[in-house]
Design a protein that fits this description.
The protein has 472 residues and is of the alpha/beta class. The protein has ten helices and 23 strands. It folds into two domains: 246 residues, TIM Barrel, CATH 3.20.20.150; 173 residues, Exo-inulinase, domain 1 (Jelly Rolls, Sandwich), CATH 2.60.120. 24% of the residues lie in helices and 25% in strands. Strands 1-2-3-4-5-6-7-10 form an eight-stranded parallel barrel, surrounded by four helices. The longest helix is centred in the middle third of the chain and has 16 residues. It is elongated.
Length: 472
């Protein structure tokens, strides 16, 4: 279907009041702010840590993409195993499992050498293919380009030519364009905007020179030669993003923050707040934080909840926290961590700020318990989850909830555990399976619009990366 037909149909749906049904929720979504941009980390940012730790730090920032670099140790348990083409199959399997567990996708690999012959280069391409990598980032010689282009086309894997500081081989975009001449579209640039700045070049002008050949971005903001929080100092980032938007760039942004190595996540988080503010104003996906950084759009007892670096923490005994806005149909994505004996929950479409009788997705320390209508992931007292998927206290869990019309779906730690139709709950105090519930209203009669709340039940709980996308 062409673009004009799609637009016409959407216009008709809007005029007729037809709701476009969301896809069946089977897994956790990616929550990037810009439609077509995938923002993740270059694992080099966490070079003092293992690759597994880099993946965890990427997830903690609410990101779903990562670029690996060669030579990083695999994990704290396997420091002698490195992320490179020589990695044995058993450890590649561990990498894939770790990525799946954290909900992070490996998209790029580099900056990596490709040897001096086809056999050496092919080993890297084989590794990339096995790991699902879509682009190899390298700084090859001009003499290699014909051979590498053939490998790119054979493996259907891109090659992005990276620029380091002047006087390295590709510090100037003109040199990158020269080696790309005559090559297929699989060959392009990995535009490192920070290295351009350090080389005395204007990153926006460099991007303009490379238009049509940019395959990936190494993204950073430089002030006085050092990495700084994006949007501060010279504030080049807005112009960089606007230029990439103008070009229609669709691809990856690999964050490199090459200072405060021991703990640079707080600076990256601040940078992402700025990035997402700009990006969502250009071509929004609809994903946005549920709560403002200062909690100004939330109702709660003063001092009862704190939000710092994307982590919402309950000070026990402080009562629930609620949105000031009401929501109808939406996808809500978050992570949570429990203390032993934590009993919390996510309220959906509440008519007021009391916890009864609204739909509650249970959030509780139930690891290892038998399935029931009162364990984590279920709809409290209404519908049990298909299985107990919650992790033990102290570990972060991922939770996604989709509400559209009467349909409520819940994915917990990559497994769909609830798929319910509220219209089947036709009687107060009675579930469709004949079991009783405590509610004085039939769930089919609950409002389909209301507040979203997180419950305080007397034990500490943490939520992070709470994002919502309204469905229209």
């Amino acid at each position: 279907m062409n673009t004009m037909k799609k637009m016409s149909l959407l216009l008709l749906f809007a005029v007729w009041g037809i709701t476009v049904m969301a896809a069946d929720l089977k897994s956790h979504p990616k929550t990037d702010a810009y439609d077509g941009w995938r923002v993740g980390t270059q694992a080099w940012t966490f070079r003092l840590f293992s690759f597994f730790e880099a993946v965890e730090k990427t997830r903690a920032l609410g990101l779903g993409w990562i670029e690996a670099f060669p030579g990083q140790s695999l994990s704290s348990e396997n420091t002698e195993i490195k992320m490179d083409a020589a990695m044995p199959a058993e450890f590649r399997k561990q990498v894939k499992e770790k990525l799946a567990q954290e909900g992070v996708t490996l998209v790029n690999f580099g900056v990596v050498g490709l040897g001096n012959n086809e056999a050496d280069a092919r080993k890297v391409f084989e590794f990339a293919k096995d790991m699902g990598v879509e682009t190899i980032v390298s700084e090859p010689s001009l003499e290699q380009m014909e051979m590498l282009d053939k490998l790119c086309q054979e493996y259907r894997i891109g090659l992005a030519i990276h620029n380091h500081l002047k006087p390295s081989r590709y510090w100037n975009p003109e040199t990158v364009l020269k080696v790309c001449e005559g090559c297929s579209a699989w060959i392009g640039a990995c535009a490192d905007v920070g290295h351009w700045v350090r080389s005395g070049l204007d990153p926006v002008e460099c991007l303009k020179q490379l238009e049509g050949r940019i395959r990936s971005i190494h993204i950073k903001e430089i002030g006085n030669g050092e990495d700084i929080v994006w949007g501060t100092g010279p504030a080049r980032m807005k112009g960089i993003l606007e230029e990439l938007h103008r070009q229609g760039y669709k691809g990856t942004f690999s964050i490199e923050y090459e200072t405060a190595w021991e703990n640079n996540s707080p600076f990256i988080y601040q940078s992402l707040v700025y990035f997402n503010t700009i990006a969502s104003g250009l071509k929004p996906t609809g994903w946005k934080p549920l709560f403002a950084e200062d909690l100004s759009n939330a109702d709660f007892q003063a001092g009862g909840w704190t939000l710092q670096q994307g982590v919402l923490e309950l000070k026990a005994g402080s009562k629930d926290i609620w949105t000031k806005a009401k929501y109808s149909d939406f996808v809500l994505d978050m992570e949570f961590k429990l203390d032993p004996k934590t009993n919390s929950g996510v309220f959906l479409r509440a008519g007021d700020h009391n916890w009864l009788p609204w739909v509650e997705v249970q959030v509780a320390d139930n690891a290892g318990e038998a399935v029931s209508k009162h364990i984590c992931g279920g709809i409290y007292d209404i519908l049990e989850p298909t299985r107990n998927a919650v992790l033990p206290a102290g570990q972060w869990n991922r939770l996604t909830i989709q509400a559209q019309g009467p349909i409520i779906q819940v994915v917990l730690n990559s497994e769909q555990v609830v798929n319910m139709n509220l219209d089947k709950w036709t009687e107060a105090h009675k579930n469709p399976d004949g079991t009783p519930n405590k509610f004085d209203v039939a769930y089919k009669d609950l409002p389909r619009t209301g507040f979203i709340g997180l419950q305080d039940h007397g034990v500490k709980v943490w939520y992070r990366n709470i994002k919502i996308k309204e469905l229209n």
